[in-house]
Amino acid sequence: MRRSAAPSQLQGNSFKKVKFIPPGRSNPSPDEEITKMSPDVKLLQVAANKNTFLQLQNNTQICSLNLPTDGSAREINHGHNYNGKHCLKASVMATLDPPHTVHSAPKEITVPKRQEEEEPDSLVKYFSVVWCKASKKKHKKWEGDAVLIVKGKSFTLKDLEGKDIGRGLAYKFKELEKIEEGHRVMIGGKEVEVMGIISPDDFNSGRCFQLGGGSLAISSSSQAAKKCFSNPFKSVCKPSSKENRPNGFQDCKPRHDPHAQNSLVMSRPDNNHQWMFNKSCSPIVDVVIDPYLVYHLRPHQKEGILFLYECVMGMRVNGRCGAILADEMGLGKTLQCISLIWTLQCQGPYGGKPVIKKTLIVTPGSLVNNWRKEFQKWLGSERIKVFPVDQDHKVEEFIKSPFYSVLIISYEMLLRSLDQIKNVKFDLLICDEGHRLKNSAIKTTTALISLSCEKRIILTGTPVQNDLQEFFALIDFVNPGILGSLSSYRKIYEEPIILSRQPSASEEEKELGEKRAAELTCLTGLFILRRTQEVINKYLPPKIENVVFCRPGALQIELYRKLLNSQAVRFCLQGLLGNSPHLICIGALKKLCNHPCLLFNSIKGKECSSTWDENEERSLYEGLVNVFPADYNPLMFTEEESGKLQVLLKLLAVIRELRPTEKVVLVSNYTQTLNILQEVCRRHGYAFTRLDGQTPVSQRQQIVDGFNSKYSSDFIFLLSSKAGGVGLNLIGGSHLILYDIDWNPATDIQAMSRLWRDGQKHPVHIYRLLTTGTIEEKIYQRQISKQDLSGAVVDLTKTSEHIQFSVEELKNLFTLHESSHCVTHDLLDCECTGDKDHTGDSLEKVPISRNCQLGPHHQKSSSLKPLSMSQLKQWKHFSGDHLNLTDPFLERIRENVSFFFQNITNQSTVI
Ligand SMILES: Nc1ncnc2c1ncn2[C@@H]1O[C@H](COP(=O)(O)OP(=O)(O)OP(=O)(O)O)[C@@H](O)[C@H]1O
Ligand SMILES: [Mg+2]
């Protein structure tokens, strides 16, 4: 029989099929001593076998399937051990078994007429097989690899995409017991030859299927290894022996001293890597990070650079050069990338030859200049020439000039200049805020995929594992094909994982789902790194967060009542109208909370309209205008009309008085509200600057720089949270006031992270203003209590339109609690009356964070996840009437405040 047709046999059949080797590990080369592991490697191997990979990853440790070679991953004397770098799995070891015996007579196994023999339920066996259609031909052609599952008397045959391609029932139980390597059996019209036994663990984890898609990850290096099996001595480089060194490399020295104190030295390539990439047998030279940079790097950044280096060099997953750096916001992903670019542009492990020439950085428009500035900040203007594309600097200029090595471009501009960019050979591609590539159908993703660059890095501040399809898109972008095709990924990972999470899942389904999730995490964890903000907390000043419940003004209350009695709201509560009228009602209530004049403008705007939709809106506003004074002029609004505005003004005044040199970032989700706040600044003579959706991208960095500068006279930065808050550094401000609330906690978290980040010199005060008893409190409660928003935590695109409300929930939303000081506190089931400082005593331990959300404990990282109700209870809280407020800022605003919550992080940090 001809065996060469089966995919697993394509590379010759002198040996029986080599068992599956996950990416990152290739066949051992002859001189590689796989049995000699260092003790810590062994420890990690045990850990990995117990599926503790998730925890390892969470502890900011990095896992690699590569075996250490002498001198690999050395970080000399910088004082931070790079623990957990090597994670090995026992199953990873390739084994070469003796040639199998081919049995000549396949036995047809047929459906039994009587099932007399008892079958033990527990007996499930798994085999790797090759199959073909049954025929009497002498020279058969195997059609594919498959997995045979024998359970009791039944057989299932699955292809390597996980699809069932055959089923059958055994004739005799004894036949099953006899099945072993080399046997041939007939199943449902297919002839099957057993190639080997698969362990239950390999089946459950899905590893046995990876021969198809996943094997791509090892193919190149296995081929390299195979070459050396055929003639092990011919191609072995001995870089250390003088005669092997090509001329010109004799004096190859590292660019920086690897033995100097605090030096940061990259991993040396192992033998496989050398076989693949050091064809000219150049001497191995240490790649050492520029000490100028190392001096500034935080420990987690050193680890991050090492991780990125290993990824893009193809050292973590052989032949794969992609990485996802998903550190939380503010951890300095930019600096880590800059260090990598600078290193690879000047150095390389083979003869010191630089690894890259040109780098492409794609980033949101508002951050193009931030990247330029960060290059300048860390490397000055002489070392690297970067070319940020803007209106005055076109891609053509970059292409013509040999001068520049780094092109920084926005996603929008990339699409416009794709044809030109395709003509440039980029060696490294970095996609900042790259979670937008989670949709493989969008133009940006297809454009970037079309670039031939192999070394790809995605930077994102948000976890990437919430949605398994989006996860696939990101993984497939950085390391194309590593998870196989989308259809096989669905069968092997997505379906079992999702099934296992259904309440109705059987124990077996749960176990399978969990194992597949663990395997997926292990595989992808090799090139995804995420650290939480805790790693930099110690470098940051204290953060004082306050939730401030502001009493609504008399006009607000009257209008609110009237709105709730409107026909439109009544219809919503009866579930009568299908055209999402609740969104219009919610919008009107939110406007009213910000300021009644916003509602007035909407009423006036709709008075003369006639379309059906607007009629609906008109029914909401009916009779409202009569509540306003007859001569009401929205341009002449007063501050007393809005409870929050009164609090805001007092807050600004006290900040000015007590901290005259400090600045405020004032955030709203609405441009119209920003207009009001801007007018207030003008009235009170507060110098301000503003960034919203209308601000041209080219001006954004200038505005940010102006505000951050110590010479700036601006007191207030008016920021639209949805218009490009992502990635900005606003460390010039130390007070953040969130004037209104969004359904999506991620929006607020993003805004908060702009100030409390590296470089901040002052304690950061955050004030979230909510109107007591109104819809704002309800939105806040929903933010902190609803599990179903967990997806929204990381997805800034989720808005209220994506939220489904039951009639019950709408009833709750459309209720005004006039007599409560704080409905949120009432819900906490706290015994205190709010008349003195109170902190809930039943301290519930916050679970230790696990970054991976594929496992059964679906959790978010601890530092940036939205607060839960029980956590809020641990915050200090007190009513506005409380006598001794120690916080001078709160003391000054309490007249208009019914309740406070306060939490201080890093109280003891001395800066
Ligand atoms: N080692 C360091 N020492 C001092 N400042 C640093 C260091 N690393 C980074 N920073 C500064 O911290 C700020 C945040 O860094 P950066 O913008 O790279 O964060 P990020 O991880 O990209 O966050 P985001 O997800 O919000 O974009 C920048 O001003 C940067 O210059
Ligand atoms: Mg960033």
UniProtKB/TrEMBL annotation:
Origin: domain of life: Eukaryota
Domain Helicase C-terminal: 650-811
UniProt-annotated stretches for the region Disordered: 1-35
Subcellular location: Nucleus
Bias (Polar residues) ranges: 1-14
Taxonomic placement: Eukaryota, Metazoa, Chordata, Craniata, Vertebrata
PROSITE patterns: HELICASE_ATP_BIND_1, HELICASE_CTER
Record's protein name: DNA repair and recombination protein RAD54B
Organism: Acinonyx jubatus
